[in-house]
Design brief:
Layout (H helix, E strand, L loop, with lengths): L9 H9 L1 H10 L5 H15 L5 H6 L2 H9 L8 H18 L14 H9 L6 H14 L7 H4 L18 H21 L1
Helix pairs in contact: 1-2, 1-3, 2-3, 2-6, 5-6, 7-8
């Protein structure tokens, strides 16, 4: 299994590397909070549940109970109620559509287009997040389906530092942050 270094926390990264569901939950939570927090949250969720992450189990929880787990200090997200609901929706999809195995989302796809379309159908995954996920799967998780780079453009570009798909340690994290800062500056300049 590939070794990810997205959370910059060894225990959290070990979980992301070994649990497809943890990786998927991290991606769901990766918005409007620091990426290290988003990708450490699956570990904290597992600890608070007192068990390994399991899509069927999370999907079956009382929504109010899951919201309380997300809201415990430190909260798993800036918007714990909304993100608890979103994670529960994603877990329900994994449970019902992918046999309770998140890796089935990217297993047995014929090409990058099918992979991208599967990801875009997940709750909370728009076009850009889906492309980033495809790039992460292709660059770091060994999911080498035809045309994955094309459908994940520009995030699948070799040697780029645009997204979490390119984070392999502290140096690449810094380069991704630099890129994002430059993009924000350019965006503000155009307004």
């Amino acid at each position: 299994m590939p070794k990810l270094a997205i959370a910059q926390n060894r225990e959290a990264d070990d979980l992301l590397s070994s649990s497809p569901l943890a990786l998927l939950i991290g991606l769901v939570l990766d918005q409007q909070i620091p990426l290290e927090k988003a990708f450490t949250a699956p570990l904290l969720l597992s600890q608070r549940l007192g068990r390994e992450l399991d899509a069927s189990y999370i999907a079956s929880l009382d929504p109010g109970e899951l919201e309380k787990i997300f809201s415990e200090k430190p909260a798993l997200h800036r918007f714990p109620a909304a993100m608890a609901k979103r994670v529960q929706e994603v877990c329900s999809t994994v449970s019902k559509s992918y046999g309770n195995d998140a890796s089935q989302i990217w297993q047995n796809v014929k090409d990058g287009t099918e992979l991208l379309n599967r990801i875009k159908k997940l709750p909370g995954f728009g076009e850009m997040k889906a492309k980033i996920f495809v790039a992460l799967l292709g660059k770091q998780m060994g999911v080498n389906v035809p045309e994955w780079r094309k459908v994940s453009e520009p995030f699948g570009e070799p040697g780029s530092f645009r997204s979490i798909a390119d984070i392999t340690g502290t140096d690449s994290l810094a380069r991704v942050r630099e890129f994002k800062t430059e993009m924000k500056a350019k965006s503000k300049a155009h307004k």
